[in-house]
Automatic annotation (TrEMBL):
Domain of life assignment: Bacteria
Source organism: Enterobacter cloacae subsp. cloacae
Name by which UniProt lists this protein: Uncharacterized protein
Length: 103
């Protein structure tokens, strides 16, 4: 059950650091899922190897975005506010589609 959700700009102190790390961790998990999906497509057959190189390209691009999120806090803060991410008071990211907190 959702007790209370907060915007990123309403968080203070340690919760801001936790919120940033949760967003980065969520992006890393999403990129890993892209790699796993692309790998399974490649194992499915030769046609996917020849015609399905876009899966690897998008996963590689996602890892470049993650690298920038890890190094540029201004960019990370802008991404968080633009995506309207919501957090618990402790700074844990709430995933609305899965109805759970990302720790």
């Amino acid at each position: 059950m959702i007790t209370s959700l907060m915007n990123f700009r309403d968080l203070t102190g340690e919760a801001v650091i936790q919120a940033r790390q949760c967003v980065i961790n969520a992006e890393i998990e999403a990129a890993r899922e892209k790699v796993i999906h692309a790998r399974s497509l490649f194992k499915a057959g030769i046609h996917n190897v020849v015609n399905g190189s876009s899966g690897i390209k998008t996963a590689a691009a996602h890892f470049l975005v993650i690298k920038r999120l890890q190094t540029d806090t201004r960019y990370l803060d802008a991404v968080i506010t633009d995506n309207l991410c919501m957090f618990s008071p402790e700074g844990y990211l709430y995933l609305f589609m899965q109805q759970r907190y990302f720790l």
